[in-house]
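Extended Data, panel c. Modelled sequence:
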Amino acid sequence: MGLSLEPISAFSNSMTASNRSQRGAEPAHATQTPPGAAAEDSTTPPATRDSATQRPARETQQASRLTAEEQSQVKQLQQRDQEVKAHERAHKAAGGRYVTGGGFTYQRGPDGQRYAIGGEVTIDASLSGSPRDKLQKAETIRRAALAPADPSPQDQRVASQAAMAAAEARSEISAEQRQEQLQRREAMREQNSEEAEQDTEISPQAQRAIASFEAVALDTSLQSSPDPIDEII
């Protein structure tokens, strides 16, 4: 069970013929096969399928013919099947639209039924857009990787990669915020400098107004000087 980290959503449980010859047909996550039960790939169709009405009776007859050891194997396979499917559902529920797929590796038990013994989903881990967009997606990926109750080693690796991507995005956000602060401070300094220059400079219009006021004041002062008064005898 695990989460496959891919730049683009694409996953197949089955290997190609060349991959099988080079790497072997080992499953993505090793599982122990109970004795007496042969593993079966998810791509292999069952030899026969019981109808919905015949299956309960057939299962009851098969169970009655199983030995105690075989019945124990069936219980183990049933439990494993539930765990595997719950594991992958947890990935999907936490990852939302970024998690796709849901391939399973099946094994046929002594009762003739197929049980999931391994599974894997794919997550789109491509990060683009703004640093905040990258941070949001990286955090979602990390939550999806650690969503199951028992994260696999592959899940842990995906979570670690997502955590590093989130840290890088936070660093980018901090750098942007520092740059914005510097720009605001520079803009404030320029504004204050312009206001100071406006306070110290006198515009030509103001200079002409001051000159006119001084001329009027001087003329008024001359006209208001006392006239000589003739003394009447």
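The first helix runs from residue 17 to 23. This feature is highlighted in the accompanying rendering.
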